[in-house]
Amino acid sequence: MRDATIRRGSAPALNLADIQDAHFSARAALWTDRYRSSPSFRARLSVVGRAIDEVLRAHPQAKVLDFGGGTGLFSAVASRSARFTVCVDRSQPMLVEGTADSPSIVAALKSEGFDGPLGAIFRIAGDDRCVASLCESFDLILAIAVVEYVADTGSLIARLAQCLGQGGTLLITVPNPTSLVRIAQRIARALLAQSRASTGRLADQSFLELRPHGDHVPWQHATTLAGLIVTETKTVPLGLSGVRRWFHPSLLISLERPRGSPVTT
């Protein structure tokens, strides 16, 4: 895998952002392995990875932006057929881990059937404010398990849309608020607020506190304002086999900029 030197970008000074950064930085070393050990992460890789391959089959030599890409699992999926892939994330530990442990990324991809040599992945530390400085028009933009952690959904979608080329695709995942899994998590969140547990299953739900909008992310209004249209919606299961495959806590949304439509600023 070819990786560019990590550059530093800007990061918001909001307290919530600091808490989010600490949360994900503490998990960076084990993040890639979760895509092999966790049923829900494996299901996400399987569904999103195949959606990426489907888009890129229609865009030979595509330019790809993986926003909030973490260690770069989905960047790696895209890089197998893309001209180049840019992975942007606020967490420098995540980016460093992805650069240093490419064998784990390759193993995770192969475990779900994503074979083939990886291409160029450029990693940049920064938030959505640095995206405009990339000076590129991307054929595919990914924001996987990212949108729910951003307070200003409209600003994020607008900035990503500005970098999307004519006929390009933006793939996002968002929580499915009607899923039984999400309902159970909301109950767990209330229990967590009353508990001081730092370990165990209850503490594992701490990420719920990092989502400004909870499960009700206002992505529909944001995409409409950005001039994007929904072309497909898929459910992402909790697991690929057993009872887990019947529960769908997340949605994978395909958004496109219609050809000939103006870029919203």
Chain-wise SSE layout:
Layout: E1 2-3, E2 7-8, H1 15-26, H2 28-37, H3 39-57, E3 63-67, H4 73-79, E4 84-89, H5 92-100, H6 102-111, E5 120-125, E6 138-143, H7 153-162, E7 164-175, H8 180-193, H9 200-204, H10 219-225, E8 229-236, E9 250-256
Parallel strand pairs: 1-5, 2-5, 3-4, 3-6, 4-5, 6-7
Antiparallel strand pairs: 7-9, 8-9
Helix pairs in contact: 2-3, 2-5, 2-6, 3-4, 7-10
Poorly predicted runs are 1-8
The succession of helices and strands, N to C, reads EEHHHEHEHHEEHEHHHEE
Q: Main beta sheet: strand number and arrangement? A: 9 strands, mixed
Identify the CATH homologous superfamily. Vaccinia Virus protein VP39
Q: Which range does the strand content fall in?
A: 15-25%
Structural class: alpha/beta
Radius of gyration: 17 Å
Number of helices: 10
Instruction: Please indicate the count of domains.
Output: 1
Number of DSSP strand runs: 9
Which second-level CATH architecture applies? Answer: 3-Layer(aba) Sandwich
Mean pLDDT: 89
Separation of the first and last Cα atoms: 35 Å
